[in-house]
Amino acid sequence: MAGKDAKADKEKGQVDGDSPPTLILEIKTPSGENWGQIIASAKEFKTGSTGFYANGKVTNPNTGARYQLGANIILIGSKK
């Protein structure tokens, strides 16, 4: 019956009531050099999933080259 319960939970769409309205994403090299940070805002996606979405730009501190960044952070099991 575990399969049936798992299916029922999936159909409900999981919610994390303790998640903050925003997250800060820091972009660093493996050695710890900071390239910047962007803010991820809570969002409900068109698929019915919930999570966070972020976009922005970070800069290579050594060369000044700029990079565009986009990220989706989806709550596993949140798709309705």
Summarize the structure.
The protein has 80 residues and is mostly beta strands.
Structure description:
- With 80 residues, the protein is mostly beta strands.
- It has one domain.
- Helices cover 14% and strands 46% of the residues.
- The chain is built from 1 helix and 4 strands.
- It has a 4-stranded antiparallel sheet, with no helix packed on it.
- The longest helix is centred in the N-terminal third of the chain and has 11 residues, at 2-12.
Number of domains: 1
| Derived structural class | mainly beta
Number of helices: 1
Q: Give the fraction of residues assigned to helices.
A: 10-25%
State the total count of DSSP E strands.
4
End-to-end separation in angstroms reads 21 Å
Major sheet strand order: 1-2-3-4
**Oligomeric nature of the chains:** single chain
Residue windows where pLDDT falls under 50 for at least 5 positions: none
Shape: elongated
The radius of gyration is: 17 Å
The portion of residues forming beta strands comes to: over 45%
The description of the largest β-sheet is: 4 strands, antiparallel
Query: H/E series, N to C?
Result: HEEEE
Give the overall average pLDDT.
Answer: 86
